[in-house]
Write a structure and sequence with these properties.
The complex is a heterodimer of chains A (143) and B (319). Chain A is an alpha/beta fold and 143 residues long. In chain A, 41% of the residues lie in helices and 16% in strands. Chain A has a 4-stranded parallel beta sheet with strand order 2-1-3-4, sandwiched between helices. Helices cover 31% and strands 14% of the residues of chain B. In chain B, strand 6 (133-136) and strand 7 form a beta hairpin. The chains are: A alpha/beta (143), B alpha/beta (319). Bound molecules: iron/sulfur cluster (2 copies) and FE2/S2 (inorganic) cluster. Residues 200-201, 204, 206, 208, 229-231, 237, 239-240, 248, 251, 257 of chain B line the site of one iron/sulfur cluster (SF4).
């Protein structure tokens, strides 16, 4: 049986969530692995949310929002982009492949792109394998 | 009438916490007047068996410093938990794993191989590595086994209170002890004692301006302006993501805060909070440039989770 990754997607209300909707109503096939969470803006995605998603068993986390210059709140997506860069550095230090966290820009009219991003990311994370099993097992502590 | 008993224990830590307690100076006499010592390996000659002989709950107050690194640490944590009415995780290591917790970036075997075989300064042709049992001509030597990972005290036994800091500041230690000595009320169990409810920045005397960072610098690279906020000057100061309590000792002295008082109230992960703060002030919208600026932060894990890696959310990312 092939491994099916669990992917959490934080999608901004104004662009990518609508893009996901469009992909749906246009019946563009996209991987069912994504659990979409609607946020008002990618700038709302606290780094804690990302780490918590991984802690709770996500194998990959996708953050998707408006294209640069198009954020409804002017700068939220730039902030998200900088957070992702820092989070990737910390994940790497913790022995987690930084490719498990991805940020993308998908507008409300890009249903096709949304499906492509989800499919590509799902394939990438599937190739990386399950996050928890990838790490070496903790020896049963003496208790 | 016998006095309430006090135990002070030192697990996987540097010993600075014990020294910080002694740094309350002559007031240690007030502590001695109020308590009978049951255990303090750093200062008195009680042994494990003396503690084991006590009834459960007999020690009124146990200040436990150091992280849980070895099987011995686990055993002493369990014993002291059982014998103590109130168990305090004292200092950053007991509270969150502390500096020893940074070892959790590696597995136990990786650590042993690195330390005992691979470092350039190691001369160990026989490849000897310490283990729980070692056969020598005279018999078998036993050492407490290393646990796979470093844990905070609270990950091993139930903890009643936490006193943060690396080490906790003597004035704050005394304030807590004085309350206990006077029989004053303590906050509800689970509380953090000997610290504030805000961030380190709120106690910092430095002048803050609008933050716009285009280059990070390390402390040896600049002589910081004595009055301006260190973060404004490009030094990674953890003040915004650290609990108040120390009086902003480090920034007041010209060194960036390392975060030893742990996350402020309401924050689950100190590193995540610092990442959030930094992401807001890096002055670029170009991904390549952002990457170049952020590359100026040496050792992100050791910077953002210096004292709390073992109990951070990142820890939970892997099993
Ligand atoms: S120097 Fe550090 S602690 Fe002081 S205000 Fe700046 S960031 Fe906060
Ligand atoms: S300034 Fe920061 S690192 Fe220094 S003692 Fe205070 S909390 Fe600890
Ligand atoms: S509103 Fe879409 S990224 Fe900010």
């Amino acid at each position: 049986m092939t491994f099916e990754p669990r992917i959490v997607g934080f999608l901004c209300n104004w662009c990518s969530y609508s893009g996901a909707d469009l992909a749906g109503v246009s019946r563009i096939p996209s991987a069912p692995n994504l659990r979409a969470i609607r946020v008002m803006c990618t700038g709302r995605v606290d780094p804690t949310f990302v780490l918590r998603a991984f802690e709770l068993g996500a194998d990959g986390v996708l953050i998707s929002g408006c294209h640069p210059g198009d954020c409804h709140y002017a700068e939220g997506n730039y902030k998200a982009m900088r957070r992702v860069a820092l989070l990737q550095a910390v994940l790497k230090g913790a022995g987690v492949d930084p490719a498990r966290l991805r940020i993308e820009w998908v507008s409300a009219s890009e249903g096709e792109k949304f499906a492509r991003v989800v499919n590509e990311f799902t394939a990438r994370v599937r190739a990386l394998g399950p996050l928890k099993a990838a790490a070496e097992p903790v020896a049963a502590a003496a208790d | 009438m016998s006095k309430p008993k006090l135990a002070i224990y030192w697990a996987a830590g540097c010993g600075g916490c014990d020294i910080a307690i002694l740094d309350i100076e002559a007031r240690i006499l007030d502590v001695a007047a109020a308590f009978d010592l049951a255990l303090w390996p750093c200062a008195a000659d009680f042994k494990r068996k003396d503690v084991a002989a006590l009834p459960d709950g007999d020690i009124a107050l146990c200040l436990f410093n150091g992280a849980i690194r070895t099987a011995e640490n686990v055993e002493m944590a369990r014993l002291l938990r059982a014998r103590s009415a109130t168990l305090v995780a004292f200092g950053a290591c007991a509270a969150a794993g502390g500096i020893p917790g940074l070892a959790n970036q590696f597995g136990r075997d990786e650590l042993l191989a690195r330390v005992y075989r691979e470092t350039p300064s190691t001369d160990n042709p026989a490849g000897t590595v310490p283990g729980p049992r070692t056969a020598v001509p005279e018999g078998t030597l036993e050492l407490p086994a290393l646990e796979e990972r470093v844990r905070a005290l609270g990950d091993v036994v139930a903890v009643d209170y936490t006193i943060p800091g690396c080490p906790p500041q003597p004035a704050r230690i005394w304030a807590v002890l004085e309350t206990i000595v006077r029989g004053g009320p303590l906050p509800p169990k689970g509380s953090v004692l000997g610290a504030g409810e805000k961030t380190c920045c709120e106690e910092c005397p430095r002048r803050r301006e609008e933050k716009r960072i285009r280059r990070f610098v390390r402390p040896h690279e600049i002589v910081p302006d004595p009055e301006r906020c260190l973060l404004d000057q490009g030094l990674v100061c953890l003040g915004p993501a650290t609990r108040s309590g120390c009086g902003a000792l480090c920034p007041a002295a010209g060194a960036p805060c390392r975060g030893c008082y742990g996350p402020p109230p309401g924050t689950r992960d100190q590193g995540a909070k610092m990442i959030s703060a930094l992401a807001s002030i890096v002055d670029s919208q170009d991904p390549a440039e952002v990457e170049a600026i952020l590359a100026g932060i040496a050792d992100p894990v050791g910077t953002f989770h210096r004292f709390g890696f073992a109990s951070s959310l990142v820890r939970g990312v892997r099993p």
